[in-house]
UniProtKB/TrEMBL annotation:
It comes from Pachyramphus minor. The keyword Phosphoprotein applies. It is found in: Cytoplasm, Cytoskeleton, Stress fiber. The gene is Coro1b. One of its GO terms (cellular component) is stress fiber. This is Coronin. The lineage of its organism: Eukaryota, Metazoa, Chordata, Craniata, Vertebrata.
Amino acid sequence: MSFRKVVRQSKFRHVFGQPVKTEQCYDDIRVSRVTWDSTFCAVNPSFVAIIVEASGGGAFLVLPLHKTGRIDKSYPTVCGHTGPVLDIDWCPHNDHVIASGSEDCTVMVWQIPENGLSQPLTEPVVVLEGHSKRVGIVTWHPTARNVLLSAGCDNVVLIWNVGTAEELYRLEGLHPDLIYSVSWSRDGSRFCTACKDKSVRVIDPRRGTVVAEKERAHEGARPMRAIFLADGKIFTTGFSRMSERQLALWDMENLEEPMGLQELDSSNGALLPFYDPDTNVVYVCGKGDSSIRYFEITEEPPYIHFLNTFTSKEPQRGMGWMPKRGLDVSKCEIARW
């Protein structure tokens, strides 16, 4: 006589979210109103950076994590761009270095002082000029020092050596339309992109070639995202033809059909996925939602297992993902925004 397992075994079944106390929040921050689908903020164990409203150019705030409470309107910003800032990313190898991409077609890399800003920072360490249209995506290489990828509305992906300010690779002609997202593989040998033409592509930057491509990964016309998982699989979020939000898991060796596909709801905010390779948990945050859903990715069907939802009082406009070394492991913390 066999007993069917009624409840799937998972060590993350009882994971729950806990908001910080009000006095540990940052208040009175005028978050940017640009309509770009970026995360608007980035965080590391030392600082939190937030793209803010700025007159006559683009700026972002950099606050030491402990500087909570009401932020004065005169608090100094990083303000060297001549157009709105669209994306920011902290360097994984140096907590004081941050890159920003802007509507002014440039990428700038900044060195933040040890204790944060005491006056406006207008001089970047390096300016990277190579895009002919606004730069909407910047992301550091996960393993190689001083290597930065940028993607612009000119449908070009550039990989830079930040130390010498030179282009290492220029990838043109691979994307016929706007690039929505770029994600490096864990070892940094490849990256995957989601494009407005509804295709997901895996690209080898050294060869400058598309290694794998899935057309019409999601049928809907609204923005989609693609991220690499640790085992080389690809996780995507997007919209169905009926404008329902979807999640899908793809095996790079066989992109004909998704390994798993789930429909969530019919909200219209873009879904931003965040992946934790240590626990194999994907966190999905929707722009304009007031919830974060999390799913465990496993080897056995249905591959994508819903764990739980964290609900907040306020809708979220952006979110930053704390690296593992910034977590309080003594309290069994596995993720922080």
